[in-house]
Amino acid sequence: MRVLVCGGAGYIGSHTVKALLREGFEVVIFDNFSSGKEELVIGGEVVRGDLDDREPIRRVFASRKIDAVLHFASLIQVGESFLNPQRYYTHNLSTSLNLFEAMLEAGVKKIIFSSSAAVYGAPQEVPITEAHPLNPINPYGHTKLFVERILQDYDRAYGLKSISLRYFNAAGADPDTELGELHDPETHLIPSILLFLLGKKERFEIYGTDFPTPDGTAIRDYIHVTDLADAHVRALRRLLASAESDSINLGASQGFSVLEVVKKAEELTGRKVLFRTRPRRLGDVPVLLASKEKAELKLGWKPRFSSLETIIETAWKWHKRAEK
Questions:
Q1: Per-residue confidence in pLDDT tens, the chain, 324 aa
Q2: What phi, psi does 218 have (nearest 5°)?
Q3: How far is 155 from 262, CA to CA, in rounded Å?
Q4: Domain of 195?
Q5: Which of helix, strand or coil describes residue 18?
Q6: Residue 183 lies in a domain
Q7: Domain total in the chain
Q8: d(CA 6, CA 8)
Q9: Shared-domain flag, residues 309 and 231
Q10: Strand 255-257 relative to strand 219-224, pairing
Q11: Catalytic residue check, 140
């Protein structure tokens, strides 16, 4: 079974490639390496190309028998999407449409799509189930919802079957320390804390201390990237077996505030986290917490690495490699 992984040199994509290879899949990675990293490629065939151009991805399908696709390639920074929405709408939608067109031309009709909890917007209730209204509040979230809706229409019209996996906050690093988080710039909370502690980030800032939460900082649901990778393999197997399109949350169903994460990082590293406080960022909501019941029911999936302690420990081990 050969699968194409678009964005397979990125953070979640690379961990999923490792899980796919371990499970016996043949993997073709398609990446332009604009944000993906060469050092995160540890196996599989690599094709360097950009989904903005239709021809390279067409050639991949024409020259190889591909059974299914996993689509991770997109722009992901919420703040940047507010500042430059044109870039997000143009890139995230056009690249997806080019990929889907190439799939249909080649007769490949099964895809796992990397979606986001951002499709829900400000939660009306928590934990958030898949039945929650879809009302994104930032351009990034809009692009993810648009692609989900495109996939629904393509299923109805062309039989393109998909499972959209709605991530909450991906975090942590490969327990074997082969892979980890390498964003530039780094905007995610946990690696920002750890890079600051290692002297690789000039300052660490907390955005918003006046949320209606116990300590005033935002609460998020952190899911270990290895658990996310496992869920992708399970979703792929389900799609290959049943050909039933679906949308499924991926979260740990437990929330931690920013200050709770800071305190745990201090405890595990033995170092003090000095921070500045800043106003809330546009589009930030007080609490995001997933219901994982559907993932457990449909995929037989249970997070194994998603305690806050394991997330921080594996990320710390990964980031500290450069100190040795």
A1: 999 999 999 999 999 999 999 999 999 999 999 989 999 999 999 999 999 999 999 999 999 999 999 999 999 888 899 999 999 999 999 999 999 999 999 999 999 999 999 999 999 999 999 999 999 999 999 999 999 999 999 999 999 999 999 999 999 999 999 999 987 778 899 999 999 999 999 899 999 999 999 999 999 999 999 999 999 999 999 999 987 999 999 999 999 999 999 999 999 999 999 999 999 988 788 999 999 999 999 999 999 999 999 999 999 999 998 565
A2: -65, 145
A3: 44
A4: 189-221+253-323
A5: helix
A6: no
A7: 2
A8: 5
A9: no
A10: antiparallel
A11: yes
Q: What is the CATH number of the domain that holds 161?
A: 3.40.50.720
Asked if the peptide bond before residue 185 counts as cis, ω within 30 degrees of 0, the response is yes
Sheet holding 110-116, edge to edge: 45-48, 26-31, 2-6, 68-71, 110-116, 161-167, 246-250
Task: Give the relative orientation of helices 308-319 and 258-269 as an angle to the nearest 10 degrees.
Answer: 60
Given the residues 140, 154, 167, 222, the one annotated as active site = 140
Q: Are 309 and 266 in contact (CB under 8 A)?
A: no
182 domain-assigned: no
Tell me, what DSSP letter sits at residue 290? B
Q: List, in sequence order, every beta strand (DSSP E) within the chain.
A: 2-6, 26-31, 45-48, 68-71, 110-116, 161-167, 169-171, 205-207, 219-224, 246-250, 255-257, 276-278
